[in-house]
């Protein structure tokens, strides 16, 4: 990046530019606090207290001076860009700046490592290792050259495709420590990142176990065989004794390596080049040995009995007998197969029937032995290693073959097993990306170095497969531990100048790789722990004062010990193959998702990638997982899935702008477009709720049980929108709206309500709720039902607004063809922790879509209502056949697959009772009272006087009333002025009403409560001399329609009370409001009488469409 900038000063007044240049660095350091927020002493903010910065006032940047708080000058930003760890945006969430101690401003040294030292050599060191030296020859002999070449090609293709995807991700910005975990978590989200990061950590840890086991195998088998603690007295016990030796020595080696890592990691890094040089020298010695076989093949004879290969470390001569002088004596080989050294001894049948022959184990490159090694030789455990084409007479009794010095398979072999054992030899491609912070130009070095390293190692592996098959005899290749060549490392027999070059080189190579694994794995775990996405791992984010991960090292050593206790390199290799393959799979997935989404931030400098290559690499990884071991693959996926779900439910919420969020957005957009094509079928209908909440003075939720009821009704399914309204303009209420939204979200979280929250600011509540009903939702994901609480304060004259808001909401939901649910006594509804037993009673009066019958079924899906039974009541009139109605209703419920008790309530025609007339009379008088509150002052006085006359009170009472009405005249005049102002500022919805609400500043002496109280007092005083006939003139003046409606409400309330008073919940058809808005007050009274005396009521008004069907 260029470091020279040309600053062009703008002439404005007499400004000393030299002084500005001298002070600029000091000011740029102090301009921003550690959290990136400009300080008050910033030169970009007008500050009269600071003389040296005052020349900015009214100068060049005055046009932007009000925005300097949030938008710093470019000169200041460029100073921060000098070190990417101090970027204002984009790194706070990626670096240690989000920790509580904040980002530490340290001057870091410019990294100087190039592609060769920083990427190529580390990748070479991590890729080449134990499998190449200890198992590749055995894989070639067992699978044959062709199948081994296919294995190597698949594995190398997998890593090459993964490297291409990794290069694209690594060059799409800065990749700090964490390597693959960082790339996956920031590309696919914290859930995938945490799951795959922990899998990669486990893979790296088990790789340490594999390297340590390889180290001990080389030590005990080829360097110091006599150092074994457990020695087998019988041949059949040798394998078990070897495993125990591996466990003892492996544990000691692990403790030593962990101590080295704990004491000084810098020594491990310094020795890395030494270990890499050992690997390079070993490979060069192998190639030199191949060239030498053309000139002079090495002498490694192999002894065959018939066509069977023999272990020749207990005898020197491949002879049954030999002649000394004129005497024929038995050899050491004879003693292994016969019961005595004498020539007339009883010998093994196969030994007696077949001759002994000797062949060269390394016939050479030009010998043509590759034709014999092309094909596979798989077999079960204990299968003897035999040379094809060699004459042999089979024996009748093969029971003692396991006790004789034959070379045989120690494990059952197959193509799938060999894939799992070989794959760890191609891992280690992340070594370069892990060091991105130390590279001079990471975005160029990582792709180049990684791909070159994979190409180089792929060439080495493929050439070794061909050369091993062309130079080494097949029986030697299939001899895993070199028993047929005097316990020499098989690849060592091919090396020049000595097999010890390979033995020593491979020993130090395995030691170095083990140390690197024990160094890298704890740091990876520490990076995951410090991200805070897995709560129980946070303890492993701490370490020593210098940052070394002490606790993570202890856990790594403990997990590594599990692999060492397995004690078999062939059993550990497939385990770590699973974890590495899963990691590579998600690297490819991350690249493919980002490419297909085409997010604006996806701008990798590495251009040679394509989403098809990523998908091919992902498919290859998945295939290799199941080819290697399907049950290990399932276990690895189960572990990753459990970690994913744990992070999803318990982990910290992180927003890293990952690709899964973008994928979800695209999927949601596609689904919304599809949903809008046609309305949902009746079978797919479910209540998509818009919950209208009221907030208190502190902006808290008034009725939290409304949220609980929503949770119980929805059980997390479908759409839920929680809406609320603040009175005022958005500019003045923006902060309160945001705080209210946070409060509602907190209440939703406490009540386990899953959905969306939306708080709007509007000039009045009526308009706000209207806007929510019209506009909530998006596309096909819109609400079809509205849930709200019953307005308990509607009777108060000063709160007539709530009555009008409620009735208008009912009308608007009907006009919008949406269902309406109104919960009365909602604060008495059960919480999510309660468990109710009893009945849910449904009173089905009219059919408006079947929502009444669907709601109890949905409620009973929740544990709160699960033990409640459903009862269905319907009303029969005089002309109805109640018995037939009950039978039909039972059949209808059976076809609907609903379990409920059915009862038909007969309501015969009765005379209208005096109680009904009284209720209607009180209701109409209350209506008159409410109307008079909205008239002018003169009309208001006349109306109050007429009400006083009708009350038949004394002349004295009327005079007192007239005196009291004169008192608030001054207040009334003020109220009229306020009323004029309020009417001028009302919205269109309020102006459509016949009269607006009474202003708060208008005070009335004669209130509705006083009127009703006076009437009740007089009625009680005259009850002895008054009869029903005296009320007839008053009753005859009543509106007969209101009388009939009140009669229905009273009779229904009696029936419901007698049947459902003990029910846990009563669901009831909600009658619609009158078409004439003049009867709104009466409508509320009807509903009040209908629900009187019932503890929990849910009024249900359907949308008119069928929501439940008998068809499948």
TrEMBL record:
Q: Which reaction does it catalyse?
A: K(+)(in) + chloride(in) = K(+)(out) + chloride(out)
Q: What is its main location?
A: membrane
Would you name any one GO CC term? plasma membrane
- Tell whether tRNA-binding is among the UniProt keywords: no
Domain Amino acid permease/ SLC12A, first and last residues per copy? 119-291, 412-690
State one molecular function term (GO).
Answer: potassium:chloride symporter activity
Q: Where is this region: Disordered?
A: 1-50
Could you give a single Gene Ontology term from the biological process aspect?
A: chemical synaptic transmission
Instruction: Give the SLC12A transporter C-terminal domain ranges.
Output: 706-828, 834-960, 1044-1112
Instruction: Report the locations given in the UniProt record.
Output: Cell membrane
The UniProt keyword set, sorted, is:
Cell membrane, Chloride, Glycoprotein, Ion transport, Membrane, Phosphoprotein, Potassium, Potassium transport, Symport, Transmembrane, Transmembrane helix, Transport
User: Which InterPro entries does the entry link to?
Assistant: AA-permease/SLC12A_dom, KCL_cotranspt, SLC12_C, SLC12A_fam
How the protein sits in the membrane? Multi-pass membrane protein
- Transmembrane stretches, by residue range? 114-136, 148-171, 192-213, 246-265, 272-291, 411-431, 451-477, 497-515, 551-569, 575-597, 609-633
Q: Where is the composition biased (Acidic residues)?
A: 11-23
Query: Entry's Pfam families?
Result: AA_permease, SLC12
Q: Which family does it belong to?
A: Belongs to the SLC12A transporter family. K/Cl co-transporter subfamily.
Protein name in UniProt: Solute carrier family 12 member 7
Q: Which gene encodes it?
A: SLC12A7
